[in-house]
Amino acid sequence: MRMGEMVARTGVSERLLRYYEDQGLLTPQRLPSGYREYAESDVDVVARIRTLLAAGLSTATISQVLPCVTAKLEPRCEVLIDQLHQERDRITASITALEESRRLLDGVLSAPVVNSVTDAD
């Protein structure tokens, strides 16, 4: 299928499909005219990419993980488990940092508001 149909079937923009190709996540065939031709299986690959991105993985990590997961995202490679644990730890650390930022912002928001310059004196 051509790019337009791939966009329609996946809901992913042409720009993102090209980006996935640049990152080595998709490898459509090239016609003599230069047009990309996607396989039916590429629709599922894009769905897996989107799911892994939503899980917080980078495209660099996804390029390593993608060959080691089934269509249902079940791991097939033992080394994948360790890498996914590392990614989970990284995400957990990010969540902890964001929660701390939110706590600090809540403190700022709960402080009394000074409405004028004279109130600040």
From TrEMBL:
It comes from the Bacteria. InterPro entries: DNA-bd_dom_put_sf, MerR-type_HTH_dom, MerR_fam. GO terms for molecular function: DNA binding; DNA-binding transcription factor activity. Keywords: DNA-binding, Repressor, Transcription, Transcription regulation. The lineage of its organism: Bacteria, Bacillati, Actinomycetota, Actinomycetes, Propionibacteriales. Residues 1-68 form the HTH merR-type domain. This is MerR family transcriptional regulator.
